[in-house]
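Hi P.,

Sorry for the delay on this. The queue was packed all week, but I finally got your sequence through. Input first:
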Amino acid sequence: LDFHDDVGGECDYDPRTLERLDVSDRNEIAMFCWAGLRLLNDGHVAPAAHLGAIGNVHAVVRQGWSHDQRESERVQVIRGRRGGRHTVRYHRSPNTLIRCLSQNGSCSNTILDIDLDYFTRDHKSEVLNHQIRLSDRAVKHTLSRHRPLMAHLWPTVVGITIALEPRHCGGWRNCMRNLDAVLRALFPGQRR
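Then the structure:
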């Protein structure tokens, strides 16, 4: 879940560099992640797919859609280092992701990547000149395990990443409020 497309593409990595990585060496992978990937979290999915660390990708993004663009038109293929192909499908909303997974078969071993700017409004506040966060209720509506998206995905989730994105959430305060709302929706009743 992201406000904008952070998946990346072949411009975000050098395939020759990835070919030389010893993926069995955790220290080498850690050093590459620290020094070889973009400083921000943008573009990290594409090199992971190229290496075969992940399979196909479904991205729910809110920005970057032309008015009449269909979701079937927004598909990207990332070539893997061993000749594999990883399909990236973009979705306008969680509902269209659910529909796609229901029609094409569910995912297994899902890594849920949540960028907190997903839970901001489309336009900045005219007065405050920063992003306005969505309500806690809107976050819960999306991420509660009893709602359709998480009811569908949660049984297959093996990992969760959360990108804070304070600059795109309207500052640290909004960012932390979004994080709290996300954690309460995903893990109700847990003490923080």
